[in-house]
Each structure stands twice: as C-alpha cells, then as structure tokens.
Amino acid sequence: MKFTAAQIAGILQGEVIGNPNAEVYKLAKIEEGTVGSLTFLANPKYTNYIYTTQATIAIVNKTFEPENEISVTLIKVEDAYQSFSQLLEYYNQVKLMKSGIEQPSVISEGVTYGSDMYLGSFCYIGKNVTIGNNVKIYPNSFIGDNVTIGDNCVFFAGVRIYSETVIGNNCTFHSGTIIGSDGFGFAPQEDGTYKKVPQIGNVIIEDDVEIGACTTVDRATLGATIIRKGVKLDNHIQVAHNVEIGENTVIAAQTGIAGTTKIGKNCMIGGQVGFAGHITVGDNVKIQAQSGIAKNLADGEVVQGTPAFNYGDFAKSFVHFKNLPKIVNDFEELKTTINKTKS
C-alpha cells in the first residue's frame, strides 16, 4: 500500500516541503530510514538524523527549519509526534478495511449480520448469532451459538467465542483469545474424586474493550462474568468465573483473577498479579507487578508485595530486607558484647 506526500499531508492537514509526489510504503525510525519509508522527527536530540536519513518522507514540526541541505521530503505539522500517531491509527484502519465472506467458512441458520462484515476463511459462526456493522472476523475463528456482537468489532485469527457471550461495540480480540470457556468449578467427593459443577452462565463484554492475545475469560457458574466499558487486558491473563472488572481498568500480562472477585473502575494493575477469590477491589486502585492480593482493597490504595500492603511501607521494608544480613551480624555482635559484659 503506497501513499504520496500530498495524500499524507491531506490526512494530517500538513504542508509539503519538497516533492508532493514522493511515495512511501513502509514506516521507519529516522535513524534507520530507507528509500520508500516514512519517518518523523519530534525529539530534538534526533535532529542530526534528518540530514542523513535515507527515508523518502519525514513528518516534522512547523517550527523546524533545516540548517543544512536535506534530501528527504518534509511534511510540516503542528505536532509531529501526535500526527505520526494519527497516521498510524489511520493506516491500521485501512489495513482492517476488509469485507466479504471467504470460503470455506460456515454460517449457521438464524445468523444475522450488518453491512461491511469480513469473515475470513475457515471460520465457523454458530446458530442464532447476531453481528453488527463493520465487524471483522479473521481466519480460523469460532463464534458459538446465540452470541451477540455489536458494531465495529475485530476478531483476529484464531479467536474463540463460546455460546451465549454478549459483546458490545468497538471491541478488539487478539489471536488466541478465548471468551466464555467453563469456569474452574469442581466439587470434591467422598471417594477423593471431583465432580464438575456445570457452568451455565455467560460472559458480558461492554463497549470499547480490548483483550490481548491468549487471554481467557471464563463464563459464570450462574449469572455473568462482566468486563465493563473501556477495560484493556494484556496478553496471557486469566479471568475466572463470575469476576467483574470495572470501567477503564487496565491489567498487564500474566495476571490471574480467581472466581467472583470484583475489581473497581480506573484501576491500574501490573503484570503477574495474583488475586484470591471472592474479594473486592475498590476504584482507582494501583497494584504493583508480582503482587498477591488476598484481601479487600479500599478506593485509591496503592499496594505491592505478597501478601500486598501499602506501597510506601513496602518500599521502606524492602530497604530493611536488603540490609537484613548486616542487621543480623550487628545483632550477633551486640549479643556477644552483652554476654561478655555479664560475665
């Protein structure tokens, strides 16, 4: 996919300095630019590269004035960094502008879908599924029976959505994501075996949610596992049955949330955090990476450690922990001195 300097300037409302017909088809860092690539200059410490880069087009701030001769075509904008980000978003949207139904694929009876749907090859859509407008389902994906999907959702290759799941608008699911698999429910029996407890609930995912690759969200035993509006989940996260995650909460990779835990809105949770089951985490809570959450947390708490406690206290305690060998030696020396004094 190629773009000219004039086309890019039109998207960004910028001014072309140089050849308006210069074409690019790839992106590059300014220090690694090659012919046919688009780059940008926002940080002044990289200014020297504008004179040596082999990139064809560079986005720069309006205030930039070259002090030496340059070969790259410039597009001047108000904010080069923001404009480059805008262009990345536009490029990503263009890449996803697929439509049509590829074969082989299966659309079962009772399915309804809106305009501009893309269904990749080797996909399966179960019975009585409802799909909104501009939904993109990439190859090798599975959508189970009675699933509801809103507008502008993207399911990358290999996503699995189990039956009865409800998905809002503007949601993105990356490859390997599994939504609606059975919760981990087994009842111990007198003979030492375990009997599976049927998981007959579902998963509800509200608008503007993004879920990373290989993350799993289990269906509820009864009722629903709920991912509220604006939640962002990283790769390799486990969300157990009947969990609820509040609006605009973000969770980093390898976090595990045990069943029936409720997490508030606007929380920030680091990687590899472990949550015990049946606890409540308030709003605006921040949890440092590799923490273990075993009890309820109030609104606004900032915690770290296993079991987690106040972040400031943790930092002070860690200083003492690092000095523990010296503290022990000092204690032993003090004890020896006291014993000598007594004798």
Write a compact overview of the structure shown.
The chain is α/β, with parallel strands linked by helices.
Secondary structure tally: strands:
40
Which strand order does the major sheet show? 8-11-14-17-20-25-28-31-34-37-39-40
Whole-number radius of gyration?
Answer: 27 Å
Q: How many distinct helices?
A: 4
In the CATH hierarchy, the third-tier topology of the largest domain is known as: UDP N-Acetylglucosamine Acyltransferase, domain 1
| N-to-C CA distance | 89 Å
Task: Tell me the quaternary state.
Answer: single chain
Strand-residue proportion = 25-35%
**Main structural class:** alpha/beta
User: How many distinct domains?
Assistant: 3
**CATH architecture grouping of the largest domain:** 3 Solenoid
CATH superfamily of the largest domain: Hexapeptide repeat proteins
Mean pLDDT figure: 94
Share in helix: 10-25%
Q: Any idea what the shape is?
A: flat
Q: Return the CATH class of the largest domain.
A: Mainly Beta
Summarize the biggest pleated sheet: 12 strands, mixed
Can you tell me the residue ranges where pLDDT is under 50 for at least 5 consecutive residues?
none
